[in-house]
Amino acid sequence: MTIQQRFFSFLLLLPAFAMAQKGTTQNTPAYPQDYFRNPLDIPIFLAGNFGECRPGHFHSGIDIKTKGKENEPVHAAGDGYVSRIKMEKGGFGHGLYITHPNGYTTLYAHLNNFSPAIQKYVKEKQYEKQRWDVDLQLTPSQFPVKKGDQIAWSGNTGASTAPHLHFEIRNTKTEHPLNPELFGLTIVDNLPPVIREIAIDTGNIYESVPLFLKITNNNIAAKPLKGFLDTAIANIPGIIGIGINADDFMNGSDNSLTFYTAQLYMDGKLQVQVTLDDIGYDETRYINAYADYKTKELNKKWIQCLFQLPSNRLDGIFSGLNANRGMLDISDGKAHKIEIVLTDDRNNETRVPFYLRTTRLGAVKSANPTGILFSANKTNNYKDNDLSFSLDERQLYDDIHFVLARMAGDGLSDKFAIHYPYVPLHHNFDLAIKPNKLIPFALRSKVILKYTDGKDEDGRVAKADDNGWYKAGVRNFGTYWLAIDTTAPVITTAHKNGANLSKAKQILFTVKDATTSVKIFNGYIDDKWVCFEQHGSSFFYKFDEHCGKGKHQLVFKAEDENGNERVFKLTFTR
Prior knowledge:
The protein is mainly beta. Strands 3, 6, 8, 9, 10, 12, 13, 15 and 16 form a nine-stranded antiparallel β-sheet that branches. Strands 1, 2, 21, 22, 24, 26 and 27 form a seven-stranded antiparallel β-sheet that branches. The chain is flat, with a radius of gyration of 27 Å. The protein starts with a helix and ends with a strand.
């Protein structure tokens, strides 16, 4: 008997069939339909849409394709004023915000340059502050815009893997991103969502194994693979949860998208509806409670749960919840008709009905997990002679039985395997470890807390308290230990001393730190600060009026989180 057979027990009485058709989207908000225009001059084809599952967040807008290239003109989607400009190495890269008089704000992200007047203003502020990564708040009188005015050129900056425009529409008052496809933009789509798998959860999502039901789909019919449940299965608990691995698509694009609404019915009665709209940045990390995080980490696929975990506070996307937070009680031995209904933003609909009943009635003996019970919605503390932390009431999405293992390490402490990396935590907590070696005074500022999830390693600065413990903020379970970091970042470049760069457009460095990250970087030409930009491990200065013709000396400095600094000098001619 397989692990799944030991944990799950139900009988599929009828195969599932999915019918793709035009449907009626439930509870569509009354957003304005003719106020905003397409921010590009080309038709909208999507590489991503609102509400898609992304690592640590829901996708907050639509990604509009730019024909695989950069520098498509970007226009104001409506009348308003440029209210914010943010430059960052990751995230949105070069981002520009327009506040509109109708109560909405639009965001345009991953841009290259802004329109000339805005670009000039941004550069002036960067040189005034002597930093590239600025976050500028603007007044209505500085850069008013009319619908259709060009404000920038599209690009590939920030956390972008291919040229495109990320476009958002937000509620100005709440700052919550809304689903842009609900605002009347012209998008051609008559393709319905597709369900690839149904997942059945019958216990704690982190301490049990779901049963996956494979679905084949040709857009008009779907059925489980032959023989996927042709043996008796024992020991069913009374309550099950349904999750789905699903995609949506649009005409003219081969990128996978996500649905707009998902409804789960049992015996004709709605048990839960999920609506992917109006998700704030303050709540987007609840993606780790909405999706089956364990399955994503271990099996590399997104299962979206049509039920609400005990400490999933993303209440806005759930409606019509039954008494079991969307989970289904099928413990009575009767056959129950289950139906999943998906719609996309253009009202294309897919229905998947099937029947479930238990194969065994009565109480079920559950496994007795070992470990300390950590409860969701409560504070959970752990402390021994050399490890200490506290998880507040918002950290866990469901109860867990906490386990800890320790191993001898070659650093300043033992290695502590703190529970399992596939159990998510909602936000940072302070982890304190006591070293098992005497740390010289000169090295106490170089202590780091190292981490591995079994695949990758990283580190962060650890600060000492008055009792000799070292503490750092972390956000994941996994293996931690103390070590010393005295190694400065490594700077490399293809430019050689004395190089003639009169025809070059920029100076480019690659900077990497083996343990933490590059915290501070600055470039100086002839002792004057110049604006270097960071994109991943690349740092570049685009030649401008701050570097004239002739011979120059460039000094580039990079410092990691522990204050380890590297200085690189380069002579060149313009």
